[in-house]
Design goal:
The complex is a heterodimer of chains A (312) and B (361).
Chain A lengths: L5 E4 L5 H14 L3 E4 L5 H10 L6 H13 L5 E3 L2 E2 L10 H13 L7 E2 L2 E2 L7 H11 L4 H30 L5 E5 L2 H4 L5 H10 L3 E4 L5 H11 L6 H13 L5 E7 L3 H13 L5 E6 L8 H16 L7
Parallel strand pairs in A: 1-2, 1-3, 3-5, 4-6, 7-8, 7-9, 9-10
Chain B lengths: L10 E3 L7 H11 L3 E2 L7 H10 L6 H15 L4 E4 L6 H14 L5 E4 L8 H11 L5 H28 L8 H15 L3 H16 L11 E6 L1 H5 L7 H8 L2 E3 L4 H5 L4 H4 L15 H13 L4 E7 L3 H4 L2 H11 L3 E6 L5 H22 L1
Parallel strand pairs in B: 1-2, 1-3, 3-4, 5-6, 5-7, 7-8
Helix pairs in contact in B: 1-6, 2-3, 6-7, 6-8, 7-8, 10-16, 13-15
The chains are: A alpha/beta (312), B alpha/beta (361).
Chain lengths: 312, 361
């Protein structure tokens, strides 16, 4: 490997969950980071040229982000993340990420920075970061220090989000919980649009990933012992924790999400206390056409709150 | 009227899965000493039933297996068994159980996803639950022989698809395989399994072949369930044989579970893949690359629509296709498949391969 000065971080997929920690870790080791621009129609169009038609919208966007970073940095960070526990895996796409990017962009000969782990490795987050530090040519001491401070930074960021969301829970009026993968909820091209539409209808929007992760994860085991996916666990756990305190839930999924296709169906079957709206975003329409559905959903909640349907 | 019970055995059922239900039945009946409900061949109605009660975006195998389970309950099964795996399959059982309960069925459900990768003790507990009087020695022999049966069936099938297109007497391969399947269906001991296998293998090998000098050879790769299950892939391999091709499919239960594992296969695809990409992607890439290197004429990639791990194999297959100049036909199955549509595509693919071969020679 030649000398690395700048590391590119694609603003897609798990960057919305762990990006703060990645960036803090690399910067703590003395590298500078380039994060790709927020998703837009152009990002998607670039990604769609490269992706297999059937792949999910977030992955198409991710490829667009990668393309943007090629040439703009020394290496692009594309980790292979399988999950640390057999019942807390990630979707198989995270296992194939580095190989996928290498094969899709083969002609460009991309230089990737990667680290790999899955539940078979019996490893933990700290060890994975140590390995990453080693790949970057840093000593264990340096890596440990950078990891500790990156973790603190992440923790702070999360607590901050959680605290702000707690305050929102006390607000009067209609409270809607947006449930989904973090990269769907917060990507301006996907969930961002939906949050905006909800807010315009006068609803306070809460997010499943701004709930205490550890608590949500624990709670999810009451929902299902066998569900194999970490993010769906955090999401369902958060729904379970908050369902009594919100007026409605919007299940936000990007087409075609494998885990969501099954888990959201289960959620709709099990959550009967609050109205649930299931929205699926795809590459064709984006958020267009969602407006009417959100409007009528909020109407239903308003009517319900005014005592319209009686007690259910 | 009440069901007449001639003994206190339970009736177990497992979703249809290619020819493997015979092996499973053997294990249940000879090993576990319970009754097994053998479903008749799937029909259009099976998948209609399954689709009706499945989430829209669930993969086709979810719908096929749910359809099988509903039919099994309608036929009188007491205990349903569903397996787990390395993809969405791991959540099939949990959701299917919930769907069936909501439909009002009453049954015992065994979700093997809860046991896979777990300790041996748990499996023994499960055996005890399914039959409190289970004889452990018998169970172990039953499992061993059932697995052997599956391996034999895979082997006979392999011979069939490799050579059936060149049989001198029309229907001779089919006849022997039918008889073989019938014998596996009625086998009650290791001896009977072995004898049936030997007879079939010998008969197949002594058949007269009219093999062209340069036959078209096609390799089938893809997703675990859809690539193997002939009903799900609309008899893809049989269709290719009828067009005149010699067909191979590396992916079967034998090669997936009882031979070289993922870690052993991956070094052989190092040029393309560095890590385990999940589920059976390594098998897919390995098989495709070996077909390419062995000079096959074409590859058919089979998966159900929305299958994430197999979708991720596609960019790699595209690179293999470019590097080795081997055409790949990508088939993505959902539950609304037209038979004629598939026929046309396969015919065109086969003709193209045949012409390419002639021109190159």
């Amino acid at each position: 490997m030649g000398e690395i000065r700048t590391i590119g971080i694609p603003r897609g997929l798990m960057a919305y969950r762990s990006g703060v920690q990645w960036k803090a870790f690399f910067e703590g080791l003395g590298f500078s980071c380039v994060v790709s621009q927020k998703s837009s129609r152009e990002t998607l169009e670039r990604g769609m040229e490269r992706a297999v038609d059937e792949t999910c919208l977030p992955f198409k966007l991710y490829l667009g982000h990668i393309q943007e970073l090629l040439g703009a940095c020394d290496v692009v960070f594309v980790p292979r993340m399988g999950g640390y526990q057999a019942k807390e895996k990630l979707c198989t796409r995270y296992e194939s990420l580095p190989d996928l990017v290498n094969n899709i962009f083969r002609d460009e000969r991309p230089r990737l920075l990667t680290v790999s782990y899955d539940w078979n490795d019996r490893t933990d987050e700290e060890k994975v970061y140590m390995e990453l530090g080693e790949t970057l040519g840093k000593t264990r001491g340096e890596a440990r220090k950078a990891y500790a401070s990156a973790r603190r930074r992440m923790e702070q960021w999360r607590r901050d989000k959680e605290r702000r969301q707690k305050a929102l829970l006390e607000r009067e009026g209609i409270r809607v919980l947006a449930a989904g993968h973090p990269y769907v909820l917060h990507d301006p091209y996907m969930g961002g649009e939906i949050s905006r539409l909800l807010a315009r209808q006068g609803a306070t929007v809460l997010f499943t990933d701004y709930v205490d992760r550890e608590k949500a994860l624990k709670r999810s085991y009451h929902f299902s012992r066998v569900m194999p996916w970490l993010i769906n666990r955090e999401l369902t756990g958060a729904v379970m924790l908050l369902k009594e305190r919100v007026d409605g839930i919007v299940l936000l999924s990007a087409y075609p999400c494998g885990p969501d296709a099954l888990v959201n169906d289960m959620l709709v079957r099990k959550v009967k206390e609050v109205p649930v709206l299931s929205l699926t975003l795809d590459a064709q329409s984006g958020a267009a056409g969602m407006e009417t559905r959100i409007e009528s959903f909020i109407d239903i909640i308003r009517y319900q709150k005014a005592g319209g349907y009686g007690k259910n | 009227m009440e069901k007449i019970k001639i003994d206190d055995k339970k009736t177990l059922a497992f979703p249809r899965f290619h020819h493997y239900n015979y092996g499973i039945r053997y294990i249940v009946e000879q090993g576990l000493e319970q009754r097994y409900l053998m479903l008749p061949e799937a029909t259009k109605e099976t998948i209609e039933l399954g689709s009706k009660y499945s989430p829209d975006y669930a993969c086709a195998p979810f719908k096929h297996t749910l359809g099988s389970l509903i039919e099994a309950l309608n036929a009188g099964a007491d205990v349903l068994i569903e397996i787990g795996g390395l993809c969405r399959l791991d959540y099939y059982g949990a959701l299917q159980k919930e769907i069936l309960r909501e439909l009002g069925y009453r049954f015992e459900f065994v979700n093997l996803a809860e046991y896979m990768g777990g300790r041996k003790k748990e499996w023994l507990k499960l055996a005890k639950r399914l039959n409190p009087k289970v004889n452990m020695a018998k169970l172990l022999t039953g499992v061993y022989d059932g697995v052997k049966m599956a391996e034999y069936m895979d082997e006979i099938e392999e011979i069939y698809f490799r050579s059936a297109a060149f049989e001198a007497e029309k229907g001779s391969f089919r006849r022997i395989c039918r008889q073989f399947v019938l014998e596996m269906q009625t086998a009650e001991s290791r001896g009977e399994i072995k004898e049936g296998y030997q007879k079939a293998k010998q008969a197949l090998e002594s058949l007269e072949l009219r093999r062209p000098r340069y036959p078209v050879r096609i390799g089938v790769v893809g997703e675990y369930f859809t690539a193997m299950d002939a009903h799900s892939n609309q008899n893809l391999q049989e269709k290719l044989v009828r067009l005149g091709a010699s067909v191979e499919r590396y992916l079967n239960v034998t090669n997936c579970h009882f031979r070289a594992g993922e870690a052993a296969l991956r070094p052989r695809i190092r040029e393309y893949v560095q890590y385990n990409m999940g589920a059976t992607t390594t098998w897919t890439v390995y098989a495709a690359l070996s077909y390419a290197k062995r000079g096959f004429d074409g590859i058919v990639h089979v998966k159900s629509f929305g299958c994430t791990p197999e979708m991720d194999a596609v960019p790699i297959l595209q690179n293999i296709s470019r590097d080795f100049h081997i055409p790949v036909l990508y088939l993505s199955y959902d539950t609304q498949n037209s038979d004629t549509g598939l026929d046309t595509r396969l015919e065109a693919f086969y003709d193209m391969l045949e012409r390419k071969k002639k021109v190159l020679r």
